[in-house]
Amino acid sequence: MGVLEGKVAVVTGSARGIGRATAELLVEEGASVLINDIDIDVAKQAASEIKGETAVFGGDLTKGDTPDRLVKAAIDAWGRIDIIVNNAGYTLDAPIHKMTDDAFQAMLDIHTVVPFKVIRAAAPHLREPAKRELAGGTEVFRKIVNVSSTSGVFGNPGQANYSSAKAAVIGLTRTMAKEWGQFRVNVNAVAFGFIETRMTAAKTSETVVDVGGRNVQVGIPQPMREVIESLIPVGRPGSPREAAGGIAFLCSPWSDYVSGQVLNVTGGLAAGMAG
């Protein structure tokens, strides 16, 4: 029996990359997981390939009431929510003097506003059960894990928009930990370093992804990848599975007395720096 047996998790952006690895790991530990992607067909395919209990929700979380409908999909499927992982996101890099208003706002929308709206929508399903449990003399811990980045902790050239949004996630995390600790909701963040995903692949003319009808150039120039790798004490980028391990710890009972923290998952990169 896994440590998350009987728990229900919502993982945004969970059809690919770190999100999918997280969904797979939570399912392995016994959780039922709502798989989410902007493209519902991709989400359905991922769910069909994950061995465990899943449901699917497709939609652009930056649009209208989509975060509310995401939460409703989990409640409709299982009647409860125990874990939220705010993972959905992408990058739109440029030096600040060339960055457009739209590019700056897009990063705030997906990385900061969406987690806020998902948490707000889930509030009744996290707070009200806790009130009943505490009145009955029992403690049941629920979990929120927000995905930040070392860019939000330390800054990163070319990512004023992304770094700002990911730094804001940390402020949201620490505030929610203080507001909802009384309801036994642990709220933490993970800050990833160099993890092998579509976003960090060697940049070529082919590394373009469709985000809600917008073609987004992703990836890192190969010379820059090599420089970053040389700075990682472990000596290589992390895998999505290794990244998911940090999230899974913060979703588990082993983190019941951990809240308001930022777990740097970096292979030792930037170890010892203030953050």
Characterization of this structure:
By secondary structure, the protein is an alpha/beta fold. It has a single domain (8-196, 237-265), classed as Rossmann fold (3-Layer(aba) Sandwich). The protein is built from eight helices and nine strands. Strands 3-2-1-4-5-6-9 form a seven-stranded parallel beta sheet, with helices on both faces. A two-stranded antiparallel ribbon has the order 7-8. Helix 4 links the parallel strand 4 and strand 5 (142-149). Helix 1 (17-28) packs across helix 8. The radius of gyration is 18 Å and the shape is globular. The N and C termini lie far apart (36 Å). The relative contact order is 0.14.
Entry keywords:
seven-stranded parallel sheet, Rossmann fold, two-stranded antiparallel ribbon, single chain, 275 residues, globular
- Binned strand content: 15-25%
N-to-C series of helices and strands: EHEHEHEHEHHEEEHHE
Major sheet summary line:
7 strands, parallel
Q: Note the gap between the termini.
A: 36 Å
Q: What is the typical, i.e. mean, pLDDT?
A: 91
- Number of distinct beta strands: 9
